[in-house]
Give the backbone structure.
Amino acid sequence: MCGILGYTSLKKENIDKFPIKKILNTLKHRGPDSSKYIKMKNCYFGHTRLSIIGLNERKAFQPVFRSDKALTFNGEIYNYKEISKKLNKSGIRDSGKSDTETLFNCLNFYGLEKTLSIIDGMYAFAYHDQSKNLIYIVRDRIGEKPLYWSKNSSDFMFASEMKSIFYSDIFKNSPNIDKMHEIFFHGKIHGKETAFSKIFELEPGTFIELNTKNNSYSVKNYWNIDDINISDPNFIMDEFEDRFNNCIKSRLTSDVPVGSLISGGIDSSSLVYKMLELGNFNEIKLFFAQNSIGRINEAASVNIFFNFLRSKFKNKRINLNNLKNKISDYWKNIEKIAYYNDEPCSFTNFHLVYGLSKVIKKNNLKVIFSGEGSDEIFFGYERYRRTDLSFEKNKNNIESIFFGHSINHLNIIESILGDKSIIEKVKASNSWLWLNEIMKKFDLNTAQFLFSQKYRLLGLLQRQDRAAMAHGVESRAPFLKPSFVSWVNSIPMAYKYNRNIKTNKLVLREYMKNYLHPNIVEREKIGFGSDFDHEYKMKEFQKKII
């Protein structure tokens, strides 16, 4: 995991005075192990490295620059060893010791389109082919790794975080007032726009083709979340085992130890169980954030599961690290959290992930598993249920999906922003139009979880990335392996949700109960392994901070 940036200009004087060292330093927290940049004709590539694969391999260091080709890459290509073997069979020498080397060789040999079709990972990278005056700027399918860009008539810049663009002093930035209502509704502006009017987010599953000769560009899709086909239900449980195992094994690819976050829920617990079952290691470190409010403290549930794991995997050392948070810690870190997040942050638990990442760093770990994404693909949120029940009563189903409970606060948001045209703006937005089209293709519940995956999930991934990378920690989300997401999306809704049973994530629970151990499912009765108590939690938290 790393930080990347690039800058190109049609004006030589802009290139000459570009403060590359100062700007690269804004990404030092993302890559504390090394920092480097290269200059090529009318552009710069920069990179800060968090070394995880190919620790001391010369070809793992970036930016890579050979034969008029250059690469700066943030993320992991989990199947790089498999691709390396294919390259060698085709006569391309590849050591198979670094995913950076393999990605570079893959792009050179196969080209961008085929490379994107065969790599499995989380990534944001830029590949420069000087002979064609082209830079390809790419983001992964789900959006696990961030990438932002800005442009004027002569200059183009991209970076892992917006603050790098701020510090360039080249692009004028101001608050994106016309989109601020989305932050109140969703916690994040959907689509390519951000909280700043001249800075854009490269959307998941897309890439930019930039012509460095005239500064023209185009954005192209290479993957869509809604490309799904319904599976044969007769083989779902048989396939689940292999597919879930593959998620875990592929995301364990690392030359350094991998730990895991753990909570009172089934998502992180299932990951930890499978890590211990499949991982080739003797020790694992787990990290849990306690809460001082008794009713919403999941420590009892976590401890029961921890003791169960120690009895089940007696040949492995399992260490549980607890973070005990106080409200004072929230206020103490609030300015740092604002700095690392760049945009307004609506997640009150950002400071928990931030604090845990600090503990993880002190434990000399660089890589951590997270259960992020499970609720989005397994229909796990209580708000899904509430929205489903509202479909029968409400003819404005698109509003139920798009706004959720926020629609009840429209008047307050209009008053704060002094804008009475918010609904008109919303209905003209790309995310509203996308949802409207999706509702023509799928049933309402499928439409709402696809909308959540495409847009709402990005806020959670942004939180996870910024909070972890603030301390040089890479967070991995095995549930979000793209092929697994597509497959789970193809499972009939009846295997994920039944409105008559107050338990979501049916297929995941069934698998855990029948194939692993019922303890993982049953222990949730002791703690708060779901978000049914979310509203209570929020009210209690608000009482503490007011």
Observations:
- Residues 525-546 have pLDDT under 50 and may be disordered.
- The first helix runs from residue 12 to 17.
- The first strand starts at residue 2 and ends at 9.
